[in-house]
Amino acid sequence: MLLHLLVLGLSSGLAAGGIVVPISDVKPLPLKTEGAVSSVKELFRKSCPEEVSARNPYPAPEVLMSSYGDFGAPDDASALGNGTSTMFASSDSLVRGAVEAWAQHQHLVLRPDVVWFEVLAQLNFYMGKHSEELRHLFVDFAGKREIQVRGLTWREVVGAFGGAIQQRVKTDWLQGWIAPGFSTTTQADNLTATVLMMGLVQRYFDFSGGIICGLPSVQLLGERRDWARLADKLERLGEFGPEARAYAERLRPILRRFVQTWDAPGSYEVRAFWTQIVRADRAVACGAGPAEYRISGWITGFLHWTEDGSLRVAAGAAPGGPEATTLDGVAYAPAALDGLPVGYARVPLKMLDHPRPGTDTAAYLLGGNVGVARAAANGDGGRTGTLAQPLSAWFLYGPVLGGNETAETGGARGSRAELEGIWGGLQRSCPGDRRRGEAAAWGRW
Known about the structure:
By secondary structure, this protein is an alpha/beta fold. The chain is built from twelve helices and 20 strands.
C-alpha cells in the first residue's frame, strides 16, 4: 500500500505555501492524538530519553530554555504551537517521522531546514570519530581551546557561538554553509544550526557563555531556490574527507529530485520518486517488536554513519539486493527499524555566573530534528486525514555532571516508545509481507 504524500510546511502549526504533489490514491487515515505531548519538558523527555535517564551520573536535568521558550516561560501545550496542530515526540523527525507518516497514511510536510539538519546531525556522528584526522582542516593547535561569549540573554549567547567559532577556524565558509539560509528559515532554525555547528567542532573547543548586565502528498515549503541551495550545500561536504564526500554523492540524487519536484510536480518521475521514500519488510517472525522490520527506500540515504561515527555501510560494500532502492545508480541500503539513529547532536556548555554570580553551571545544548507536528487536514486541496511535519528544535538543559566533557547517558539514544509506535502502525496498516510484491511496480528510477 502506498502513502499519499504531500510536501507541506508548518513551524508549530500548519502553514500554507510551497508546492503540493499528490502521489497516490491510498486512503488517508484520520488524525489520532494518542501519545501526543503537552509540554516542552514532555517533548524533550520522550524524544531524548537518554538525556534524563535515571542511570546518568547526575540527577535528571531540567529544560532551561529551548526553541519554544526562554527561562521562566509557561510550559504547557500553548508553548508548543498555535493550537492548529498536535505535537508528538520524535528522536528523528525526518527519518522516523517519514517512516511513521508512510505507515500511518499521513500527508508528509517538509521544510528544507529539517532535511539540512539531518545531514548535519549525521556529520556530527562522523566528526565524533574522525575529528583528529580532520583537525588540520579547521585548526592549527592540539587539544582544545575555550570559546567564551557573553550576551544580554542566553538566546543571544547561544547565537553568538556561531560567529565565535568562525573567527577561530581555518575554513572561512563553515558558518555560512551550516546556516540554513532558506526562505523557510526561522530564528530558532538558525540557533539549531549553531548548536549543530558547535557539535561538529566540540573536539577542538570548549564552550562557556554568560549573561552581561542589560536590558498523503508532499508539500515542499519555501521556494524552488531554497531547495536548489540545499542541493548546492553538498559541494562542501567533500571537504570533510572521503567518507563525507561519499555521503554527498549518495545524497545528490535525492536532493536533485527535491528540486525537480518544483519543476515537474505532476510528472510520473516525481511521483515515482516520492513513492519510493519508504518501504518496510519483515526481517524476522511476527511479534518481535521494532526488530521485526527493516526500513528501506531513499529516506535511508540520509543515514550514512552510526552514532559512534562508523560508516553504516562499509566502504566498497554493495548495498544492493531486492530491498535496496536505487536512484541514478546509487543504491540505498535498508536499515533495521530498531537501529534507526537519532537526528540530533549535543555539546557541553559551561554557564558562567549562573544561577548566581560566582557560580558556574555545567549544562548541555542539544539541537537537531526533534518532534513531529500533526494536524487534521482541513480539506484544502482535497486533502483529508492527517498532515505530519517533521520539526527541528534546540534545548539548553542542566545542571549536569561537572566539567566540560560529554558524559555518557544512560541507555540507548532516542525514544524506544516512538519505534514501538511505528512498529504498531506497520503491523496495522502495512504488513511487511506485502511490501515485496509492490517492489516490482515501483521499479528503479
